[in-house]
Design a protein that fits this description.
The complex is a heterodimer of chains A (141) and B (118).
Chain A (H helix, E strand, L loop, with lengths): L2 E10 L8 H12 L4 H22 L1 E9 L2 E8 L7 H4 L9 H5 L7 H8 L2 E7 L3 E9 L2
Antiparallel strand pairs in A: 1-2, 2-3, 3-5, 4-5
Helix pairs in contact in A: 1-2, 2-5
Chain B lengths: L2 H8 L2 E4 L10 E4 L3 H7 L5 E4 L4 H9 L4 E4 L7 H9 L3 E4 L4 H10 L3 E2 L6
Parallel strand pairs in B: 2-3, 2-6, 3-4, 4-5
Antiparallel strand pairs in B: 1-5
Helix pairs in contact in B: 3-4
The chains are: A alpha+beta (141), B alpha/beta (118).
C-alpha cells in the first residue's frame, strides 16, 4: 500500500474529558485530505470508541493512522490489562465498565461491536497483563 | 425544521452557535448514553440529552450532528460551549424534560433519527 499520510497521537489515560481529542484531529485531517463524509464519519466513530476504551480500561495508549490510496489503516495500542475473552467482549451489551464510566454516558457494551460495524476489517491482538492492539481498515478506493 | 423553530417551541436558551439558527434539521435522537448514540444513530440531526460532560459535544461532532439540546435545565460548562463553537454545533438548553422535549418536537414534525443496530 502506498501511503499518503501517517498520523500519530498519544491518548492520555488520566483525562476522561480529553478522550476523543485524537479522533477529532483525525477527522479534521481526513476532511482536509478530501475524503467523503461517510468514510470520515465511520473512521471518527471507530477511533472515538477505541479511544474511550483506552481511557476507561487501559490508562491511555496510542492511535496511529496510515492514509493510503486504497485504504485507511488504523492501529490503536495500549499497555492495559488485556481482554481475557475477546468473544465475550465482542458481544453487544457485554461490558466491564465501572458505574462511574456508565454515569458519564459510556460502557453500554457496544464499543467493540460498533468499531467492527464501522470498519471493513478489524483484528484484535490481546494478552492479559500485557495490553491490546486493535487493527482496523477502511477501504476508500 | 429550522433550529430557530426548535428554540421557539422549547423556549430554549442558545448557549453556542447563535449564528447557525437558520440551519435545517429533520431528525432527532434522545439518550443519556453516548455509547448508544454512537452505536445506533445513522443520520445527522439533533441530539437530546440530560448528560453534562464534554463527551456529548464530541459525540455530536463525531456524528456530524447540527444541534444538541440539553434537557432538564442542565447547563453546559464554558469548555463545552467553546467546543460546540469550534465544531459548528448549536448548543441549546431547556428546562423541559426529555419526554416533554421529545413530544413537542415530534408533534411538530421532527422525525426520529434513522438507526441501524450494530
Amino acid at each position: 500500500m502506498s501511503e499518503l499520510v501517517k498520523l500519530h497521537y498519544d491518548v492520555d489515560g488520566n483525562d476522561f474529558a480529553a478522550a476523543g481529542e485524537a479522533s477529532m484531529k483525525i477527522k479534521k485531517e481526513l476532511r482536509n485530505l478530501g475524503f467523503p463524509q461517510d468514510i470520515i464519519r465511520r473512521i471518527a466513530i471507530a477511533v472515538y470508541e477505541g479511544e474511550i476504551n483506552m481511557v476507561i480500561h487501559a490508562d491511555g495508549g496510542t492511535a496511529d493512522v496510515s492514509v493510503g490510496l486504497d485504504e485507511i489503516d488504523i492501529t490503536l495500542a495500549d499497555k492495559g490489562p488485556g481482554i481475557p475473552d475477546v468473544e465475550k467482549a465482542m458481544q453487544k451489551g457485554w461490558s466491564t465498565a465501572s458505574e462511574e464510566v456508565r454515569s458519564a454516558g459510556f460502557g453500554a457494551g457496544m464499543g467493540l461491536p460498533n468499531m467492527k460495524k464501522n470498519t471493513d476489517e478489524m483484528e484484535i491482538e490481546t494478552e492479559v497483563g500485557v495490553g491490546t492492539t486493535i487493527h482496523m481498515k477502511v477501504y476508500v478506493a | 425544521m429550522k433550529i430557530q423553530e426548535i428554540v421557539s417551541l422549547l423556549n430554549a436558551d442558545v448557549q453556542s452557535g447563535a449564528d447557525k439558527l437558520d440551519e435545517e434539521v429533520s431528525s432527532a435522537f434522545g439518550s443519556d448514553m453516548m455509547s448508544e448514540v454512537l452505536a445506533y444513530v445513522q443520520d445527522q440531526g439533533v441530539l437530546l440529552t440530560g448528560l453534562v460532560n464534554e463527551q456529548i459535544v464530541r459525540t455530536a461532532a463525531m456524528m456530524n450532528m447540527y444541534c444538541i439540546i440539553m434537557v432538564r435545565g442542565k447547563q453546559p460548562t464554558d469548555n463545552m460551549k467553546e467546543m460546540a463553537e469550534d465544531n459548528d454545533l448549536v448548543l441549546l438548553t431547556t428546562e423541559l424534560t426529555m419526554y416533554e422535549t421529545s413530544g413537542i418536537l415530534y408533534t411538530n414534525g421532527l422525525n426520529p433519527a434513522g438507526h441501524s443496530y450494530v
